[in-house]
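Many introductory courses stop at the sequence. We go one step further.
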Amino acid sequence: MDGFEVCRRLKQDEKTRDIPVIFITAKNSVEDETQGLELGAVDFIPKPISPPVVLARVKNHLRLKFYSSMLQSKNDELAERNLYITDSIRYAQKIQSAILPDPKMLEKNIKDGDLIFKPKDIVSGDFFWCAEVDGMIFVAVIDCTGHGVPGAFMSMIGNTLLNDIVKVKKVSDPGQILNLLDQGIILELNKEENQDTIDGMDIALCVIDRGNAKLNFAGAYRPLFHFNKGELTEIKGTKKSIGDRKRQLDFATASIDIDSSSVIYLFTDGLADQNNIEGEKFGVQKLRDFIKENATLPVTEQKELLTDRINNFMLNEVQRDDITVAIFKPF
């Protein structure tokens, strides 16, 4: 067989395909050289042959082969580590999903409610929380510091503290709940000693009192949108994050009347901060416009339309943060 066939067979065999092949040949046409290189040769040296040049090229290609093999070994090692880390994170996702409230609880506790939940990574720093205690329905969306694994750890702490405050201690005033949550986060993260720690969370929490047709709300940097009879009202949260010991503020409770026409929107900042390929942010105003256009539709249909609008806005742009939006009718 000729040299071309030898090279072809070497490159077809997994055991020999990485061996550098150099053609030393009397053939000197462009077509021959092109054919040799396309078959996988690393070099093509036509006659007349200069032994020092050949030896120098062999040394160069052996050096390149050494570094290429070393790089491949490192890549294989990184791929193995990445697989291990990814598997660990996926298992962490299972644990997080098992501990945090199931998003379907919103549908269970509220007849017409739905949730848009788009984590940036496998595990999320955003989480949804819902409970029913003594006839009162508690609904919250929480945005923990960061996303991915750090945010997921914070979400577990926040979920545990909320369950203790509401289900065990039976606190029902949302402002007081956030005050206790704030104290709990500072205590859990030992912030009295580690004052530079910035971990915490922003939250929008509402308590539905159907018996009195009232909705009580408190927020840590997060607002509530209330649509009723053609009008959209925003209730702003307190300008302080949960766990921020530098801002000495108490979380305030606001109260609104609700009826069968009311639609409530709670959301984290991931939606407003998301940009498109042109660098434009989705912003809060686009959400307001969407609500005014679609608030009278069934909640499930609103979720589908808003999800489509978010995806069409982002297109191929990378998601910046976790995105969570809760939409529900209190009655």
